[in-house]
Amino acid sequence: MQTPKISQPDSPISIRIIGNRRMQNELLANFLNKEIGCEAFCFVNHDAAALVADTDPNNISITLIDRSAFSPQSPLEQLAPNPAKSDSDRVILWNADRALDESSQAIAMGIRGIFFMDDSLSDLIKGLNAVLRGELWYSREHMCKALRSINKASMPPEAATNVLSRREREILVHLVDGNSNDAIGDKLHISPHTVRTHLCNIYRKIQVTSRVQAMLWSARYL
Q: Which residues of 46-79 are buried (b: 16+ CB within 10 A; e: fewer)?
């Protein structure tokens, strides 16, 4: 069967694979490099925190973190992206254990998706394409659970919508469509820095803490 391809965005893209299973990770990196055309690099576990924090905001980077390489007791916070760079650095967990049921927490942390140990290579490619388009890669069940959690923590949608300016609502609409900060800025004729400022104000007003949570909130209420 022909392997699906990864759609190439306008911005440069690299894929970073973090874990301690060297052979597995090098085989995957080699596949992504040769068969799909994406630059892929391998790093060991202790590089994870620094790599997630060190991201060029002008490029798109997908960080694939091998969840099985970390203790089940390891907090997801240490694997989550820097909120200020979550547009350019899109963190995904792979080799996750379904029994741990971490999806809702991962969504809250701003992690873009999870692949489980029994997922196929085809699933991985489909998910990577979805994340590159600005989408999330979670089951409908986990997305609904995350929405219910956000509903409990956030202010009532009517109140939040009333405090959002017209420009802020426009930005949220473009956010849900999967646009990057740069793309939103181009569409609205404002700078990426201004987009980031608006997003910080939006997060505060609707009482969320990450881009992913804002996307979920917007998809539900706007």
A: eebeebbeebebeebbbbbbbbbbbeeeeebeeb
Reported as half-sphere exposure (CB side, CA atoms, 13 A), residue 123 has a value of 13
Of the ranges 29-33, 43-47, 83-87, which is most confident?
29-33
- The CA-atom distances, in angstroms, between 37 and each of 29, 145, 158 are 11, 35, 46
- From the candidate CATH numbers 2.60.40.10, 3.30.70.20, 3.40.50.2300, 3.40.30.10, the one assigned to the domain spanning 13-138: 3.40.50.2300
Q: Which two tokens stand for residue 58?
A: 């002008």
Q: Which fold has domain 150-221?
A: Arc Repressor Mutant, subunit A (1.10.10)
Look at the pTM and tell me if it is higher than 0.90: no
- For residue range 175-215, list pLDDT tens digits in order: 887 788 888 999 999 998 899 899 999 988 888 878 888 88
- Which residues are CB-contacts of 76 (< 8 A; sequence separation ≥ 6)? 102, 105, 106, 109, 111
The one-character DSSP state at 19 is: -
Residue indicated by tokens 């997801």: 76
For the record, the structure tokens of 32 come out as 């992504």
Angstrom distance (rounded) from CA 94 to CA 69: 10
Enumerate the CATH 3.40.50.2300 domain ranges in the chain, comma separated: 13-138
Every domain of the chain with CATH number 1.10.10.10 lies at 150-221
